[in-house]
Amino acid sequence: MTLKMFVNGQAMSGGSLNHALEDARPLGPARTAPAYRFFSVRDEFPGLHPVTEGGAAINGEVYEVSYEVLRDQLLPAEPQELELGVITLEDGSGSFSMRMRASALTAPGVLDITAHGGWHAYLATL
Fold this sequence. Notes:
three-stranded antiparallel sheet
C-alpha cells in the first residue's frame, strides 16, 4: 500500500533529505492550494502552515511512498518543528505533507517566506 507525499524543502530533488525518498516513486512537481503560509526555520528547512486567509500556493514535489518509507526513512529525519498532516494540492486532491507545528511559528529564527512561493526560490535570495 502506498500514499501520496508532498515535499517542499530538503526532501525535494537535490536536497539533503532526498535520500530518505530513494525507495519512493517521484510523481513530479506540484503546488499546494493557495491556503498556506510558508516559513523558513533558521534558513535550514521550510514549513507550511494552513491559513484561512492570506495564503498562497507553494511549490514542491509529490512522491508515492510506502508506509514503511514514511515510517522508517522520512519521518525520523524530519525536524521537531514539523509534524505530519494532510494538505490540499492545487488540483484539489489531498496529500500527506510535513507542516509547521503552531507552537513553532513564533520560535526564534522563523521567517515568513510565503512571497517567494517555494524553498528553492527563497534559497536563491540568500
